[in-house]
């Protein structure tokens, strides 16, 4: 009994030390891990399409080729969309800055001229400069991330080429270990289901946002819809990051009322996606507590940079499933689960 009690602090110290070492190591090779992780998740998204084509009697090599061609077209279209929009936006930034200055000058007319309010005026200008910088930073980051897309596409293509035979190979290797086979299947099914459902709901949210902005005649509506789709993988914070650029442009074009209307519209789409559509599709598949979800954003963002936040939830699910695979670490996985009763 005493031995078991004494082993608990030792186990915590051991696992904590291992986690710190692993974190430092992953951070050092983050530039290598990011394209690898994105390639694996892209493979998980597109491999069901390969299997579906095979069930329709399409030969394996042709089905993989069709999916790879679709992936390349999608990647090229995304890069062209972001690059073209960024170039157009860069030419209009001086105009937006002028409009923002005009807005703050109008606000200043309603503020008392006493010295105690000069700090408020400075704060307003700083906020405006921050929002403009944030908008440009988001787009510049997306453009810089596009430099790794070619590597991701190539790696995903090689993974897809082996997709048809992988399940059979895996079953042959572990056919004498039914428990391990069951865990591997459950692991893959849960992860793929989450990624596919998250991608589908993000796509609906991105299309809905783009349509809303097109109706409102907001500049670069398609780009903001794509940004909404992309940042939808970041829980809690993604919505606010995606809403900043179109709300700013609505402020420039229609004033405060227009900005509020766009913000409310995007918020309603987000509520529909996150509170109605996604829970109804995902069910209980995401058994992570909200605190773990939120903390995972900061952890994977620290380890892998901004790209880590996009795949923080799938990576955290992988960690949880790995912890569940051992009797010695299963208690850690339980701590990561949501406390709500089924």
From TrEMBL:
One BP annotation, GO: transmembrane transport
GO cellular component: membrane
Membrane topology: Multi-pass membrane protein
Primary location group: membrane
Signal sequence segment: none
Segments traversing the membrane: 7-26, 32-53, 65-87, 128-161, 203-227, 259-278, 298-323
Compartments, as annotated in UniProt: Membrane
Domain of life of the organism encoding this protein: Archaea
InterPro entries noted in UniProt: AI-2E-like
Coiled coil location: none
Keyword Transmembrane helix on entry: yes
Pfam families: AI-2E_transport
Keywords: Membrane, Transmembrane, Transmembrane helix
Recorded family membership: Belongs to the autoinducer-2 exporter (AI-2E) (TC 2.A.86) family.
Name this protein carries in UniProt: Permease
Originating species: Methanosarcina spelaei
Lineage of origin: Archaea, Methanobacteriati, Methanobacteriota, Stenosarchaea group, Methanomicrobia
């Amino acid at each position: 009994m005493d031995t078991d009690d004494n082993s608990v602090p030792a186990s915590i110290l051991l696992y904590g030390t291992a986690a710190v070492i692993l974190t430092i190591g992953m951070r050092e090779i983050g530039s290598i891990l990011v394209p690898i992780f994105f390639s694996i998740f892209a493979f998980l998204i597109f491999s069901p399409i390969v299997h579906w084509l095979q069930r329709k009697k399409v030969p394996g090599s042709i089905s993989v080729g069709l999916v790879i061609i679709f992936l390349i077209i999608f990647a090229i279209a995304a890069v062209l969309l972001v690059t073209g929009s960024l170039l157009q936006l860069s030419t209009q930034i001086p105009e937006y800055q002028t409009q923002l200055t005009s807005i703050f000058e109008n606000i200043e007319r309603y503020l008392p001229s006493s010295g105690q309010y000069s700090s408020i005026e400075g704060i307003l200008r700083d906020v405006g400069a921050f929002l403009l910088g944030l908008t440009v930073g988001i787009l510049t980051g997306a453009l810089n991330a596009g430099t790794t897309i070619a590597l991701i596409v190539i790696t995903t293509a090689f993974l897809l080429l082996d997709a048809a035979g992988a399940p059979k190979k895996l079953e042959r290797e572990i056919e004498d270990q039914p428990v391990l086979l069951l865990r591997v299947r459950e692991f893959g099914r849960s992860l793929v289901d989450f990624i596919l459902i998250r991608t589908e709901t993000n796509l609906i949210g991105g299309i809905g946002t783009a349509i809303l902005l097109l109706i409102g005649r907001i500049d670069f509506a398609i780009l903001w819809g794509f940004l909404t789709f992309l940042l939808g993988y970041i829980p809690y914070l993604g919505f606010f990051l995606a809403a900043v650029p179109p709300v700013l442009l609505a402020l420039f074009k229609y004033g405060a009322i227009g900005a509020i209307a766009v913000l409310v519209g995007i918020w309603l789409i987000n509520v529909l996606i996150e509170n109605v559509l996604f829970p109804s599709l995902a069910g209980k598949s995401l058994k992570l507590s909200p605190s773990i979800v939120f903390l995972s954003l900061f952890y994977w963002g620290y380890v892998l940079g901004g790209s880590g936040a996009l795949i923080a939830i799938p990576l955290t699910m992988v960690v949880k499933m790995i912890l569940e695979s051992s009797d010695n670490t299963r208690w850690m996985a339980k701590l990561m689960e949501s406390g709500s009763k089924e």
